[in-house]
Amino acid sequence: MTLYDDTLLLISRLSTYDKVRLMEHISEALKQELEDDYYQRMPWNEFVERTAGSLADDPVQRWSQGSYEERDPIE
């Protein structure tokens, strides 16, 4: 038997509820793989166009460095 055949046998033993859960899991995993593949193959300039301004509502802010103890200089 192949792994595929073994998997089908195991799936046939699941309850309807668990089969639905399995389908949802497989659907989400496949969707993520397809999105990842799409973004990996996307031309760089299209990626920049799609992501430009994505942090406009949440800008990066650099806070003060704070004060630290004085240490001996490196020689």
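the 2nd protein, sequnce then structure:
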Amino acid sequence: MADDEKKIIIDENWKSQVQSEKEELEESRKEGGGDAAGGPSAASAFPPASFEMHLSALVTEAMVALGKIPHPLSGQPEKNLGQAKYIVDTVEMLEEKTRGNLSEQESLAITDLLHQLRMLYVAVQSEPEGAPSVEAPP
């Protein structure tokens, strides 16, 4: 077949599918399923808030400050012992302020995390200046 003889075949089903998706989205917005910007609810983009998730975020931030995880903006390990100490102090404050209000599992988790963060902080603090901060993947 020559190029001028080729025919373009258009699938018309996609138009009806797009229209039904638009209608479903509009219905969802009317029922409160979307945010003010018209997109999906911002809350649906995040896991449910929990004590464990908050601790996990703090530990991740501490690992970045200790140079064990590359900084998200630079992609390079950056030690900031002042920030790391602040985060460890924050976890310690949370342990004190929530004492007696946590489940046994939560209490054990925060105690264990605090111990691990303190030990890691001491280890990083005693590392020589030129020592590599991020361990290479296996």
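The two ends are 55 Å apart (CA to CA). Residues 134-138 have pLDDT under 50 and may be disordered.
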